[in-house]
Amino acid sequence: MLWRILSEYFAASRPAAHADPLAEYFHHNPGRLIDKWHHYFEIYHRHFAQFRRQSPVVVEIGVFHGGSLQMWRSYFGPGARIVGIDINPACRQFEDDATTILIGDQADRGFLAEVRARFPRVDIVIDDGGHTMVQQTTTFEELYPHLQPHGVYLCEDVDTSYSPDFGGGLRREGTFVEFSKTLIDRLHAWVTTQPGQELDRFAYTTLGLHFYENVVVVEKRPIDPPRRSQTGRPSF
Fold this sequence. Notes:
The protein is an alpha/beta fold. The protein has nine helices and seven strands; from the N terminus they run H-H-H-E-H-E-E-H-E-H-E-H-H-H-E-E. Helix 6 links the parallel strand 4 (124-127) and strand 5 (152-156). It has helices spanning 2-13, 21-27, 40-48, 67-76, 109-118, 133-143, 176-187, 189-192, 201-205, and strands spanning 57-61, 81-86, 99-103, 124-127, 152-156, 206-212, 215-220. The chain has a seven-stranded mixed β-sheet, with helices on both faces. It has a single domain, classed as Rossmann fold. Helices cover 34% and strands 16% of the residues.
């Protein structure tokens, strides 16, 4: 009897075989080439699951061989509009009825303005582009404010912030990681803004920041001024 109870307990506690559909897709990839760090899939699924079967507009910067475009199509389901951005014109071949390919430099603010104009609603931005400091920072500055009010912005491969080859270095000023640290202060503008100053828009449009190894995620949400109250009886 005890053995059966324990068996049922551990069976119920065991994750479902398909709990992470992105990892499942990747490891049984039926399509074009994908290059990803394995721990990314849990992060993707944690932040993107809410958009599945909701016909999101997903912008991925960095098309590579086009495999991740197919992965996102499978994950988000019919109705999703996948927008791939790359500097390589050869990536145009991956365009189809549900996938738009735009060729341009993500560090070009004029080009990113064209992206905003063409896609007035964007639910998710995934920056897997050139990974240089100017590219990552410029793209965030131009596209994060454009995300719909409940959108998600994900920048991956931020380890380049520590690589001199990409303009990085540990605690070096101007890296994307150091830029992301300033977002923590901006999130707390409710308490740092002085009387007469305008409140940083980031504070009332952002739910939170998530720092993972090699990945930064920023979640948007309309935020009311923080409120505090007390309930219950005092104990002393």
